[in-house]
């Protein structure tokens, strides 16, 4: 159950839309590049296993409070709150795109109805209902993905060999994003409570096995879904890959793709609501009651829906937020190092600074040593992680001396 919940909570509408579109843009290389983020499960599983068994910590908030103080814990909470905020709009925007053109009445109406329906059952069951529905949704996703891939390979001249040879393994054709995803995987999972909340539910050994298995199976699912985009590229399609392929195969396949999007978005959205509720009520102790937790869910729905009206970009919810938290890399990888509190602040704010460089396109051209799409993303993360490691280690070395 834990493995299935982990996978489906990360195979959300935003992810599979990005995977299909990257398959359309770069061929199978695009799918592999986005699947690189699923290394996050293995990294998080191994490190949190050690934090639990060797450190004795019961949650990440417990870890930050013990190691760096309450203010550090509050800053960490702000980072994960931003992550949860991004999850709402980036997934519901995908749902809207299946019901109407961007900015149309059906587009906005479908988003509002879908969000409120998901909120309704989340208010009733919280994380327990989220995990229960995750298992069902994972089963549905697997069946429907099999149906789609069977249709692509059986009813057209498109073959597995066409898929494998569809991309060019170069920086100009997707490798920048692949290496950026792998690099961000060393910090990205720790600011996602949808993932980390599940790391403290089972025994350490069961959790570790689940996370390692989810890393492999989740990455495989993303690569398989990117085949839809690869097929769209081979057929010369343009636009949203999943939508266009659905239209090409007729109403039945379009409805199946639509259903996958709805179930995957719902599985992530209910987890997002329950994680935000836990963050506000339990981790931050703002109001330890079920009623307060439900109010927190409602607040997140309102705030998380606002960007839909501001023309936000779906992929930026992953790439930019992943850059903003690269300062977590040395904090978790060297968690046993007796670093002083200042190390935390230097590393975190160094990472945020590099995130702003990416947002406002202020990266000097001399920093970028490769060409092609996402070159700026790759190199701002490389220089950013190196800088975070240095500023984290300097106070620790001084203290040791």
TrEMBL record:
Belongs to the sodium:solute symporter (SSF) (TC 2.A.21) family. The chain crosses the membrane at residues 29-51, 72-99, 105-123, 135-153, 173-190, 211-232, 252-269, 290-310, 316-335, 342-360, 380-398. It is found in: Membrane. Keywords: Membrane, Transmembrane, Transmembrane helix. One of its GO terms (cellular component) is membrane. It is a multi-pass membrane protein. InterPro entries: Na/Glc_symporter_sf, Na/solute_symporter. This is Sodium:solute symporter family protein. Gene3D superfamilies: Sodium/glucose cotransporter. One of its GO terms (molecular function) is transmembrane transporter activity. Its main location: membrane. PROSITE patterns: NA_SOLUT_SYMP_3 (PS50283). It comes from Leeuwenhoekiella marinoflava.
